[in-house]
Amino acid sequence: MSETMIQCRGVSKSYRKGSTVVTPLEALDLDVPKGEFLALMGPSGSGKTTLLNLLSGIDSPTAGSLVIAGSELAKLSQRDLTRWRAGHVGYIFQLYHLVPVLTAFENVELPLLLGTLSKKERRERVETALTLVGLEDRMHHTPGELSGGQEQRVAIARALVADPPLLVADEPTGDLDRDSATKILDLLRALTRDLGKTIVMVTHDPRAAAAADRTLHLEKGQLLEQS
Ligand SMILES: Nc1ncnc2c1ncn2[C@@H]1O[C@H](COP(=O)(O)OP(=O)(O)OP(=O)(O)O)[C@@H](O)[C@H]1O
Predict the structure, then answer these.
(1) Which residue has the CA at smallest separation from atom 7 of ligand 1?
(2) Which residues, other chains included, contact 137 with Cβ-Cβ below 8 Å and sequence gap of 6+?
């Protein structure tokens, strides 16, 4: 039996918006085995980003339990949760969120600067991550000197540099042309196949979803298997 990376039980999330309460996620259950590449689809405002934020420990549920990579997140103190996040989850954004004045190397090194690794260890990790995404020859370029697809590769290297078991990606191909998107999807697939990473990817694009092992549809706060 395969190990479970994500177990959500009865997870709800509500936000107060003025005098109304919005509940994008309601009593949601989700199991994701280790090494799965899962796509999440659903209409705008259906709670996809909210779910990614819960899975990555950035936000906490209003009700329900989340066990991710063996940790029950609600039981962690704020300090332990921050540490857990740094070691267990890499976040990939649609618009890359790279620091424009830093080189690719420096952007990828950022998540390691708060840790205890020596400069030499950091350099090895950063070079390994940039090599994994095929950008070893662009290490000293700034984001402005790279294409969108290359910027997303740098962002993926940054998400990978601490070697987390889980990657969450919010529309990672949403701002890319077809060819660059295909390359990013191939890279994500390789990360699950070759490194055993678990990936949860939000997408509006059926082509991107087709690259995943499984697609779930978020509707009315619940996840439905796509037929
Ligand atoms: N921090 C917040 N405070 C208040 N409301 C929020 C907050 N974050 C999300 N919401 C609301 O929760 C609902 C779900 O938002 P979410 O961003 O998760 O949807 P989504 O499916 O990712 O949408 P899209 O496809 O447009 O990115 C929306 O109604 C949104 O306005």
Answers:
(1) 15
(2) none
- Backbone conformation region of residue 23, classed left if phi is above 0, alpha if psi is from -120 to 50, else beta: beta
Does this complex have an ipTM over 0.90? yes
Write down how long the chain is: 227
Q: What distance in Å separates the CA atoms of residue 169 and residue 205, rounded to the nearest whole number? A: 13
pLDDT of residue 1: 47
Q: Give the residue extent of every domain in the chain.
A: 35-58+86-225
Contact 164, 101 (CB under 8 A): no
Strands 63-68, 4-17: parallel, antiparallel or unpaired by DSSP?
antiparallel
- pLDDT tens, position by position, 137-194: 999 999 999 999 999 999 999 999 999 999 999 999 999 999 999 999 999 999 999 9
Residue 115: pLDDT band (50, 70, 90) is confident
C-beta 2 within 6 A of ligand 1: no
- Tell me the residue type at 224: L
Domain spanning 35-58+86-225: CATH 2.40.50.220: no
Task: Report yes or no: 150 and 97 within 8 Å, Cβ to Cβ.
Answer: no
CB burial of residue 57 (10 Å; 0-12, 13-18, 19+) = buried
Ligand 1 centre and the CA of 172: distance in Å? Answer: 17
d(CA 165, CA 184): 18
Instruction: Measure CA of the first residue to CA of the last residue in the chain; give whole Å.
Output: 25
What pTM, to 2 d.p., does this model score? 0.95
